Amino acid sequence: MLRRGTVAAATQRPDITQRLLNGEQQLAAFSPEQHVKVIAGPGSGKTRVVAARVAHLIASGHAPESLLVITFTRKAAGELLQRLQELLGGAITARLRPSTFHSLCTNLLRHYRQHTHLPNFQVASEEDAAAMVKSILENAEFRKELGYFAGEQQDRKGKDEVTYYRKHISNIKNFCVNIERRSGAELIAQMAAAGRRLPGGDNSNITRRIAAMYDEYVARMAQQQLLDFDDLLHHCLALLLNNTEVRAAVHRRWRHVLVDESQDTNLCQFELVQALTSPSSSLFMVGDPDQGIYGFRGAKSALLAESFSQLYGPTAATRSLSENYRSREPIVQVAELVRRHGRLSSSIAASGRSRQPVVRLDTVVLMEARNEYDEADQVALQLRRWHEAGYVWGEMAVLFRAKRLVNEVYKKAIAAGVPCHLWSREEFFEAPEVSVALALLRCLVDPLRAGDSIRKRLVKKGSPVKVPLMSGLGPDSFDALATAVEAAAGSSSSSSSSSSSSSSSLGGCLLGDLPLEPSSEQAIATLHQYSAATAAGADSTEALQGLAAAWQPPAGAKKLTKKQAAAVDRLRGLVLLGRAAAAVSRPEEVLELLLGASGVRPELQAALEALQAKAAKQRLSSKDSEDLKKLRKRKGNLDTLLKLARNTRAYTESPVLGLDAAEPAANAAGLESGDGGESDAGVPNSSSSSSSSSSSLPLLQPTTGLPLLQQLYDYCVLQGEDDEDERDAQKVQLMTMHASKGKEFACVALLRLHDDAMPAIHKDDAGAGSDVLDQERNLLYVAITRAKEHCLMIWPGAAFSREAWREEPLEVSRFLKPVLSAVSRRQLPGVQQQRRCFIERE
Ligand SMILES: Nc1ncnc2c1ncn2[C@@H]1O[C@H](COP(=O)(O)OP(=O)(O)OP(=O)(O)O)[C@@H](O)[C@H]1O
């Protein structure tokens, strides 16, 4: 139970938090019950209520560190922090660390590593996981065993085989719990029993292949101590369930668990929430079952809607919010018609404030364009109209179901002078210079398994980023070296002959007997040797050369040419130098050192300066101008990465609490006593609370060391698919409907609302039943409700068909038909229908 007296005292104060909330929101945020779920529609202030609940708990005397706030994406965590900053000020907010499920699990697994059976695990990026599947598929033995005939692909419609298996492995992990020590066949049977069909239905051959791939993948990942994103959740759940000491320590640390966007939790995440919550801690879950859009990943909105109350029964409260503050009335009405399959009555209404029209343009326009080209023209035109009416570009968004559907609009909008920013997944982390920097970082934090990264990122042929460190060693000689060192080391562990698999263990072989945990004398000697060499005029890569000379070279190195051997020496020197530096330097300093010593930064700087000098003397050719632009962007990206490194401690959660440490003391000093710890409005002011915290909490905040670098590396690898790049707020944002979740824009254009694009049913899901259709309906509902003032909903009446080689008519989305009928019956004021397509329909 929350302390009722404190709650009452806090809610009686006319504080800033209260003034920002309506009656229903206050009831939810200040609920005295121990377990509360808030179920409410879009724009009703759910995220605002989570922020208010956090502020309220802190104002009631709970230490910020005792709150565990879970959001679905890092972007959502950032947005929540921004709101909290406004409510609580910077110093208190700095002590809050909203986490995603994945980052939380990674940190717990790292911190309590000695209690897991994979103490030295490394997070496998999507790329690592795909590489693993690929290496399995390249194994002729494995294919033969599964009855593949020569040249056969699993997915004959041309879809990438690796993606196909990755998706099914992930599905198995998403739809099942207790996956440990259970075979693919058993888990697939469990899924089937729960009504989740696999592609091919009862085709035992397809099922057998997926099961066999699953087993092989799981075995190889475990052998290399790699955890993919799904594994992080399962392993963390197992850690908490199997270890009472760890669970107790976690319960002592976090007394209040708050989960935003709970409709998207899958079974494993829901069980994690339960495991993180002790009988005496509070749980606050917020969500909207109608906005559940990740059913394909195993998310189940019923967990919030039903299981929550079943589990927490009599102590649980359910709150709802019924006013939509975001969207004007016609937008809310159209969205409700979609959600309620055409029924007009609604449980959510636009708030009075949002009913005021801002400019005299229709609020919702439903438009049937002639074809896809006309659709693109109309979208570009509408964006310009909104702009002329006074909206800035950054207040507009174009949303689409799949990226391939937006190409035409993007081209036309740019041609019409509309500045556009097309969101792309992981754009920043996939930039070549950032990938190279991360591969260098991997060499430091995980040298034994860095082989794949070295091969793919540092010795890659034709890479746009030069890595002087490795010059003299190309991919072919690298593979030859891999084979030689493995043979010399007598390695018989790998069952595969693929280069990918052997290069994974190559990292270890390359190091020879290099000390990975150098003594402080060794570390200081290494650092001195390097700085003496650079001071004497050696360039950075030359200075690396002799560092590892005192230790045995790797087995097989004798067969290398002089140039190849030099590259290997430099790499060994880099590992030695980096690990020595890590002990005494901050993450950003180590990263800067890696970029400098590897020659990446000097090479980039020299190329940039050469072009800038040329530009000062003469007009650059278009190729040179383009190159200059790219080099500047590369430099900017490396600076951004260094900035991330500088903030490592600010964004990484540190659940650093020893198993025997005391419970974090309530941060009562100055908060409840009114001894100067409150601002006029009753909100705890930042300076007083920050001073009271550090002494009361045994949280470790290291400033140097490999664990911090590991956190930085984890942060970069855990880049989720929804954490898309959003760096140019001055432009119209073009993004998928999925990525738009949780966001809002003054004006929104929704594209391609025809029946085979919305709903989009993948062939694998064709027989999966109404769930899949419901998810698509929810997705459209989410997309419409991102709009505050205006919404254009458009679809082409016809499109060119490559199969028929002519223009074929298209049907409007089935979800919009009830809306069109309501418009024709004049039931929707503020909604206008336009038809530019005059194809005769049967
Ligand atoms: N009481 C209120 N007074 C004024 N504005 C409010 C109030 N509550 C919420 N808002 C505003 O309404 C908008 C939607 O709020 P919020 O993002 O918290 O809703 P949500 O329920 O989380 O939305 P969704 O689920 O659709 O993402 C925001 O711009 C927010 O500032």
From TrEMBL:
Coiled coil: none annotated. Its EC number is 5.6.2.4. InterPro entries: DExx_box_DNA_helicase_dom_sf, DNA_helicase_UvrD-like_C, DNA_helicase_UvrD/REP, P-loop_NTPase, UvrD-like_ATP-bd. It holds the Pfam family UvrD_C. Residues 321-447, 605-795 form the UvrD-like helicase C-terminal domain. Residues 21-304 form the UvrD-like helicase ATP-binding domain. Keywords: ATP-binding, DNA-binding, Helicase, Hydrolase, Isomerase, Nucleotide-binding. The keyword DNA damage does not apply. This is DNA 3'-5' helicase. It catalyses: Couples ATP hydrolysis with the unwinding of duplex DNA by translocating in the 3'-5' direction; ATP + H2O = ADP + phosphate + H(+). Residues 667-699 are annotated as: Disordered. It comes from Tetradesmus obliquus (Green alga). Belongs to the helicase family. UvrD subfamily. It comes from the Eukaryota. CDD domains: DEXQc_UvrD. It is an enzyme of class 5 (isomerase). Residues 686-699 have a biased composition (Low complexity).
